């Protein structure tokens, strides 16, 4: 088991991940009923037992890895103390399931060409590869056909705003970049590679990315604090002839727009006539949401939720008092954490997987990238984003075009979601005049 990372929680306890699931390596007597006694105690402590594996077994004791779902780190400490209060029981170590899953990294490279014979070697390397090099030397456009370029994306961060936890540094941004790569490969069939840049100077970031961009069909910016993220995106977009996607501007904002369209439909309202409050506009998500809603033709904007038909909160959890002051049939999207009070809204969603409607950038960006790459787009236009939002909203509707309060957005893993969004984005890119080729 990997060692628990240093935290400010009690010694030996790894801070639970967002699924509040820990693995306890527990030593117990090798006697009939020992595990039943442990499971009963964990249940009485308000936790839940998951999978169990035997690590080693001896004459007098047995060591098991026991997955335990707890509320938080303090609760984990209480459960461990209770276990160790049993005669002959002890907890050797704890580990977060998410750390175990990420051991060795979330992604890896793979080869497309075989390398099992001398003939394979001559085709893949010398002398065969020289012909490919010369073809690209004479016509760089051939790189789209004979290299990884046509289906690859660079994922860039400076570590200044890592998964909403603030400035964790460039090294800590690598797992977040890897997770984006994982999504793009599994959901969109796109080869992506993480490239955290160890500087906070905008010009240096732009220059570094631009100078290495010839390998890629697009640039994906993530976990960069506002407003620097938008300055970097705009500078790169002006300098490069490949799309530059920012996870909030082109991911979160699209997901929010789709959720609002459907949420307002549940309440019998239309976006073009609705008053939408967006709080936390200084954040990357708030800025991006306001910009795309304006492009979508929202009825009226405000920063005050009082009387509003919908609220998109980027500045913290929404409380029940805020919801009670909104218009009837209120739609609340709490994008900076969950709040029990916010669930009083007629339609509620958040950025968390525990929400009935998880409004996540991952709903949108795999399909946007697939669609943009398929037509070799030079940039990402508002028309492409609006098309993606419409496709995403439609994916949550049933055969009768109805939508329900508990399903204003589909699951990230919904079958056909990426393909649906990709088709809409490709068509919009072609009609916008930014496609290099027609979609196959």
Number of domains: 3
Strand order of the largest sheet: 10-9-11-12-13
β-strand amount: 15-25%
CATH architectural name of the largest domain? 3-Layer(aba) Sandwich
CATH homologous superfamily title of the largest domain: NAD(P)-binding Rossmann-like Domain
Structural class from helices and strands? alpha/beta
CATH topology annotation of the largest domain: Rossmann fold
What general outline do the C-alpha atoms trace?
A: globular
Characterize the main sheet: 5 strands, parallel
Overall mean confidence score, pLDDT? 90
The number of helical segments is 15
Gap from first CA to last CA: 47 Å
Describe the structure.
The chain has 440 residues and is of the alpha/beta class. The chain folds into three domains: 21-101, 2-Layer Sandwich (Alpha-Beta Plaits), CATH 3.30.70.260; 149-242, Rossmann fold (3-Layer(aba) Sandwich), CATH 3.40.50; 248-440, NAD(P)-binding Rossmann-like Domain (Rossmann fold, 3-Layer(aba) Sandwich), CATH 3.40.50. It has helices at 34-44, 73-84, 97-101, 118-124, 128-138, 143-146, 174-188, 202-211, 228-239, 247-266, 284-296, 320-324, 365-374, 382-395, 417-432; strands spanning 21-29, 48-57, 61-69, 90-96, 152-156, 191-194, 218-221, 244-246, 275-279, 300-302, 310-313, 331-334, 347-350. Helix 7 links the parallel strand 5 and strand 6 (191-194). The longest helix is centred in the middle third of the chain and has 20 residues, at 247-266. The chain is globular.
């Amino acid at each position: 088991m990997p060692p628990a990372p240093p935290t400010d929680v009690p010694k030996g306890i790894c801070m639970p991940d967002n699924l509040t699931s820990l693995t306890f390596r527990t030593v117990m007597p090798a006697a009939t009923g020992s595990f039943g006694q442990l499971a009963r105690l964990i249940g009485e402590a308000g936790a839940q037992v998951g999978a169990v594996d035997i690590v080693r077994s001896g004459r007098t004791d047995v060591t098991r890895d026991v997955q335990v779902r707890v509320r938080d780190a303090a609760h984990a400490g209480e459960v461990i103390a209770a276990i160790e209060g049993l005669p002959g029981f002890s907890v050797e170590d704890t580990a977060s399931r998410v750390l175990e899953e990420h051991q060795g990294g979330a992604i890896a490279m793979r080869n497309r060409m075989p390398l099992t014979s001398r003939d394979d070697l001559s085709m893949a390397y010398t002398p065969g590869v020289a012909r490919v090099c010369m073809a690209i030397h004479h016509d760089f456009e051939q790189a789209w056909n004979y290299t990884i370029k046509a289906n690859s994306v660079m994922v860039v961060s400076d570590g200044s705003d890592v998964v909403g936890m603030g400035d964790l540094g460039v090294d800590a941004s690598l797992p977040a970049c890897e997770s984006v790569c994982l999504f793009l490969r599994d959901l969109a069939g796109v080869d992506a590679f993480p490239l955290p840049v160890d500087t906070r100077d905008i010009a240096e970031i732009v220059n570094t990315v631009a100078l290495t961009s010839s390998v890629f069909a697009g640039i994906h910016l993530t976990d960069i604090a506002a407003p620097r993220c938008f300055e970097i995106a705009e500078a790169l977009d002006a300098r490069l002839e490949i799309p530059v996607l920012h996870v909030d501007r082109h991911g979160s904002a699209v997901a929010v727009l789709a959720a609002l369209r459907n949420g307002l439909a549940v309440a019998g309202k239309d976006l073009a006539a609705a008053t939408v409050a967006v709080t936390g506009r200084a954040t990357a998500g708030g800025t991006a949401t306001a910009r795309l809603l304006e492009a979508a033709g929202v009825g009226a904007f405000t920063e005050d939720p009082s009387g509003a038909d919908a609220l998109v909160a980027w500045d913290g959890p929404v409380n029940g008092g805020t919801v009670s002051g909104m218009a009837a049939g209120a739609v609340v999207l709490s994008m900076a954490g969950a709040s029990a009070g916010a669930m009083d809204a007629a339609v509620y969603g958040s950025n968390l997987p525990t929400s009935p409607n998880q409004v996540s950038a991952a709903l949108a960006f795999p399909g946007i990238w697939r669609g943009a790459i398929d037509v070799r787009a030079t940039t990402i236009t508002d028309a492409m984003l609006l098309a993606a939002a419409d496709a995403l909203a439609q994916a949550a509707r049933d055969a009768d075009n109805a939508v329900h309060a508990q399903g204003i957005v589909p699951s990230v893993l919904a079958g056909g979601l990426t393909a649906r969004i990709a088709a809409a984005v490709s068509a919009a890119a072609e009609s916008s005049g930014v496609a290099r080729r027609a979609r196959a």
